[in-house]
Amino acid sequence: MEKVWWLIVGFTWLGFFLLFLRMGRIRALQGLLQRTKRSVDDAVRRRLLESRSRLSKLEGEEGFWFFLERQLCYSGLKRRFPFLGAESFVLCMVLAGAVCFLTGTLLGGLFGGCVGILLLLAAAWGIITVGKAMEMHAVGDNLMKLLDFLGNYSMTSGDVIGVFAQIGKYLDEPLQSALEQCCVEAQTTGDVGMALLSLADKIEHPQFKELVRNIEVSSRYSADFSVLVQFSRRSVREFLKSGRERKSLLREAGINMLLLLGMSVFALLIVNGLLETSIWSILFTSIPGRIALGMVGAIVFLFAMQVYHMES
Known about the structure:
Strand content: under 5%
């Protein structure tokens, strides 16, 4: 009976010891997460202060973290996920990369793990690129509407933020959120010029940047904005006209590229019927065939990059 009692006491103490050990590990993990969160928040705060300093001095921002933060902002991810910053995005990519690498390694070995990481990077790049294109298109569609709203007001430097607050709710994203944040920042800090510079830095569209920076310059001299709005309307019309011309050229070039690819496939089908061996095995297994496929792929890739640069 005494042995059973000692066993009960021993297992009880062992259970408490394991419980406290587990609680200590959980507290250590919580402390690590809290320290990581504080360091990320401090880095975001320091970069924001440095960004404001560079904006006030009209200097360009350099460095990987500034570039990544700007890409997240331009793609709309920062607006949809306010907690997402450059550091948190890299941390999420590292965790997702580890999962993809382990999954790819289990399925296809080391090569599969590398392919998983490459697919993750390609997916992230594609999401950012598509998001930037959608944001640029949305801003372009609302830019003339913004100028029409601004033309209905006889603005002076004292009521720029008030006008933005009134017209922002009638615009689509991302202009709506950008104007609301500009109004909140101007009312909170009292620095209208810095709020306007920050507004111009949040949108990638070049005509919008030019418009907001011109408004910021005019606001410092208490000027009437009617002349600026009229000039901006002409500039935006010319920009949209050139954009339509570029799109027509790209459409024509894309049709020509599809015709060339279709004719190439048709020629390969004809040659495949004339040869005793399969032309597809020659293309995919022989060195000259792989070189030819690589050249075709390089041409298509260069064409796609040229389309991307012309669209942006």
